Amino acid sequence: MSVKLTSRQVGDVTVIDAAGRITLGEAASAFRDTIREYAGKGNKKLLLNLSDVSYIDSSGIGEMVSGFTTVTNNGGQLKLVGLSKRIKDLLQITKLYTVFDVYDDEAQAVRSFS
Amino acid sequence: MERQQLTLDSTLESVDEAEAIVIREAEKTGFEEDDQQQIGMAVRECMVNAVVHGNRYNRKKKVHLELEPSNEGLTVVIGDEGDGFDVNALPDPLLPENLMRQSGRGLLLVRAFMDEFHVQPRTGGGTEVRLTKTLTK
Question: What is the rounded distance in angstroms from the CA atom of residue B110 to the CA atom of residue B58?
Answer without folding.
Answer: 24
